[in-house]
Design brief:
Blueprint (H helix, E strand, L loop, with lengths): L2 H20 L2 H5 L6 H9 L45 H14 L12 E3 L1 H13 L5 E5 L5 H9 L3 E5 L2 E2 L2 E2 L1 H10 L4 E7 L11 H16 L3 E7 L17 H4 L6 E7 L1 H4 L8 E6 L5 H18 L5 H11 L4 H23 L8 E3 L7 E6 L5 H12 L4 E3 L2 E5 L8 H15 L2
């Protein structure tokens, strides 16, 4: 093991030895190199001659670039072309951390790590798996989950995905979640919570959050080391009363010295910049210190550097500028209102009693999506194909349910979407 990794591990042990046992073998061995090329380049910064960095520069020291870009982006070249740090741009990380506290006021003074920038949430999840999931570890998900989790945890890192039933009696199935947590063998548990859920579009009610957290605490109190990966991709898109509007991160951040909360979020869905590919990883644990978090941040940045080097300088710079604009909050609210309007129209359309003969909606209250479950023995995949062929309508099938991305459908066409599904079911039932 490299001495730099060993030093980080010793720092972790000195503050909370439980966290070291949560790391995968890769996580224990990774570090951000403070020696070598990066250290030598940092020492040469500002010198009269600097032949260290692997970038091309003009004679005046500015970033070399093709002049055609000047007409496309009105921003200083230093915010566009150079490599960004593997940790992320410092000012952008600080701004994002501030936003976590602002959007989650229940955090209050809880000490959390500084966010580390990732190449979107997919990359963030992959880096979390790198750091915490060994081969043959179990990752517990709800049975309604984004299929990319399989590629990340199973195909890339050799872990095993197990599921619990997400719904019971029209709400979160706390009983099965707790049961499946207790069935995981070994001293370490990894679970992933995704709210609003993709594909179901469900966020727990305020009354459900405490019971979910209680199940996690029960296993932690038995001495299990629990890593809770929190996929907050659709954070903030809640459309109903009595739904928990903060991240469950706030309830886990100070829960137990045996529970590490790993928040994965970013602007992709929140701020409608899917192609920018920027996300963040942020850590919290009861009693967490600046030293502990710095060690985790260094390991995470090391994993990023060893994987893709760093995140887009331009994307981070543009987002930082937009977040500082006085019109930002109003613009964001306008887009939220559009999605809320689509949600309301879809929910109203689905309330027509005639549809209940052929399909029923799963509980939904937030996010981009919702799902319907066919009845009368109808097969979801056959409905999907029939919708394409006869009704020029595209939907996604996940197992036995049909996912509808109401985020992508104009409000006026949502009743037609539901009617088309109904007509396809009628056709196939003949």
């Amino acid at each position: 093991m490299d001495n730099q990794a060993l030093s980080l591990n010793n720092t972790i042990v000195a503050t909370n030895a439980n966290v070291l046992s949560m790391l995968s073998e890769r996580g224990k061995n990774i570090f951000f190199p403070k020696l070598g090329i990066l250290a030598q380049a940092a020492q040469a910064r500002g010198k009269a001659i600097n032949a260290t960095i692997g970038e091309a520069v003009e004679d005046d020291g500015s970033s070399m670039h093709l002049p055609e870009f000047d007409a496309l982006v009105n921003m200083p070249t230093a915010n566009i072309f150079p490599y960004a740090p593997s940790f992320g741009k410092p000012e952008f990380r600080s701004l994002w951390k501030d936003s976590i506290y602002r959007k989650n006021p229940s955090l209050k003074e809880t000490v959390i790590s500084n966010p580390i920038a990732t190449n979107g949430l997919t990359h963030g999840l992959s880096m979390a798996a790198y750091l915490f999931a060994n081969e043959d570890d179990t990752v517990l998900l709800s049975n309604h989950y984004w299929e990319n989790y399989n590629l990340i945890f199973e195909n890339n890192y050799g872990a095993t995905v197990e599921t619990f039933e997400l719904f019971a009696n029209g709400g979160f199935n706390v009983a099965d979640f707790g049961k499946k947590l207790n069935e995981i063998e070994g001293e370490k548990i990894i679970t992933l919570l995704n709210f609003p859920n993709n594909p179901a579009g469900y966020t727990p009610l305020v009354s459900e959050i405490a019971t979910i957290v209680a199940e996690i605490k029960k296993v932690a109190d038995k001495g299990k080391k629990v890593i809770v990966l929190i996929d907050d991709a659709y954070f903030g898109l809640v459309y109903e009363e009595n739904v928990f509007t903060e991240s469950i991160f706030v309830e886990l951040a100070n829960l137990s010295e045996n529970v590490l909360a790993v928040k994965l979020d970013g602007p992709t869905k929140e701020d409608y910049v899917w192609g920018f590919r920027v996300g963040f990883i942020t850590y919290a644990i009861k009693g967490g210190t600046a030293e502990l978090y710095e060690a985790l941040e260094n390991k995470t940045a090391g994993a990023v550097r060893g994987n893709i080097s760093n995140i887009s300088q331009l994307s981070q710079s543009m987002l930082f500028k937009v977040y500082s604009a006085p019109t930002y909050e109003q613009s964001k609210k306008e887009k939220f209102d559009i999605l809320k309007g689509r949600y309301d129209i879809l929910r109203d359309a689905l309330s027509n009693p005639k549809y209940a003969e052929y399909f029923s909606p799963l509980p939904f209250n937030s996010g981009y999506f919702m799902c319907v479950e066919p009845k009368k023995g109808l097969v979801a995949e056959e409905i999907r194909k029939h919708l394409l062929e006869k009704y020029s309508t595209g939907v996604i099938v996940l197992g036995s349910v049909i996912r509808l991305a109401f985020s992508a459908v104009p409000q006026a066409k949502l009743p037609e979407l539901v009617e088309n599904i109904y007509n396809a079911c009628v056709d196939l039932d003949k």
